[in-house]
Amino acid sequence: MSSNTGVRIGIDRMGMFVPGQYLDVEDLARARGVEPAKFTKGIGQSRMSVPQHYDDIVSMGANAIADILPDIDVNRLGLLIVGTESGIDQSKSSSLFIKHLVGLPNRIESFEIKEACFGGTAGLFAAYHYVAAHPDKTVLVVASDVARYGLGTAGEITQGAGAVAMLISVNPSILVINDDAEDYSDDINDFWRPNGMTEAVVDGKYSTQVYLDFFRHVFDAYCGKHALAPRDFAALLFHLPFTKMGMKALNVALENADVETGKRLRENFELSASYARNVGNLYTASLYLSLMSWLEHADDAAGQRIGLFSYGSGAMGKFFTGCVQPNYRQHLHALAHEHMLMDRERIDMDEYERMFTHYHAAEDAETKYPESGFYFSGVQGAIRQYSRA
């Protein structure tokens, strides 16, 4: 069943945006004195999206919405939610900037959610229950983040930037979400970013173990409650701070699975990891980038059950399931997303380090703006300014 009321609710449209520049992780490895295979095979990454000074959670979120805005009936829209852990203000919601930028009506409700990488999923389920109460309405959920750990740090390889936008509605065209998730939370210090710090503090090995422990807890609980096993899922999709993290979790799920199931789920995992491998960590958007990657690369998945694991440090975990809808491919923008990734500019280490250093001093950076889309144009009187090319 899809909800307590029997109403089918889920994802009707999906859009994405990533900055126009990337760093090849082999270049990063050589510059840091690391064997490239440690990054490409050991971590599972190939490219890392690098934001310009004009790319922030607002501009990227607005650009992700623009990807699907022509398909949205704004007269039905009742709510805009942004999930992020890269907040731009201690008080004002980034969603209000985004709402204004893309021209959404003032009558809609709008707010921001924070819980590390779980914020996008928190927004998704808030949207789900809003639509359950107001089936004539739709909700836009935006997950937008910039993952930063610092030059030369252990976490540098897991950086990235981008946004995913999702329209939530009744009778969705892409994925019906089942309202029977398993949740698990605890007060854990595996990753955090205190006020005033622009880079996160992380205990990488501990965070990996917590991630796997939380996954085992919610996955086993869900399967036990519903008499399911790995063979009953077409794909298992994960929050991917780096792609090997998801493979570690998949191996947990497959501990007692048959060989054929393991082969099938590992193949589908690789399809789901394709975008993340070439973009990097998107924090709140990571799981939904995995979902989009799988939907846009897999063979026809209509009618199939999938499982999704969302994790946010600190920590919160959720396992939920969904059913892929008939004709879902007609409502995806796979070709546009392929071109977005292919058309990016490859930058060298000098340019990467310059962009990283100047990212939080945009008003002092060289005057350079994109040729299309929304962008952050600086600060005037302590107020952030945005424009459209």
UniProtKB/TrEMBL annotation:
Positions annotated to bind (3S)-3-hydroxy-3-methylglutaryl-CoA: Y149, K248, N281
Keyword Transferase: yes
The Hydroxymethylglutaryl-coenzyme A synthase N-terminal domain, residue ranges: 9-170
Organism, scientific name: Bifidobacterium aquikefiricola
Keyword vocabulary terms for this entry: Acyltransferase, Transferase
PANTHER family from the UniProt entry: 3-HYDROXY-3-METHYLGLUTARYL COENZYME A SYNTHASE, HYDROXYMETHYLGLUTARYL-COA SYNTHASE
Gene3D superfamilies given in the database record: 3.40.47.10
GO biological process, alphabetically ordered: acetyl-CoA metabolic process
Active site: E85 (proton donor/acceptor), C117 (acyl-thioester intermediate), H239 (proton donor/acceptor)
Enzyme Commission identifier(s): 2.3.3.10
Pfam families hit by this protein: HMG_CoA_synt_C (PF08540), HMG_CoA_synt_N (PF01154)
InterPro entries per UniProt: HMG_CoA_synt_C_dom, HMG_CoA_synth_N, HMG_CoA_synthase_prok, Thiolase-like
Superkingdom of origin organism: Bacteria
Record NCBIfam families: HMG-CoA-S_prok (TIGR01835)
Family membership noted in the UniProt record: Belongs to the thiolase-like superfamily. HMG-CoA synthase family.
Residue ranges constituting the Hydroxymethylglutaryl-coenzyme A synthase C-terminal domain according to the UniProt record: 185-256, 271-356
Descriptive protein name: Hydroxymethylglutaryl-CoA synthase
Statement: the UniProt record of this protein carries the keyword Transferase: yes
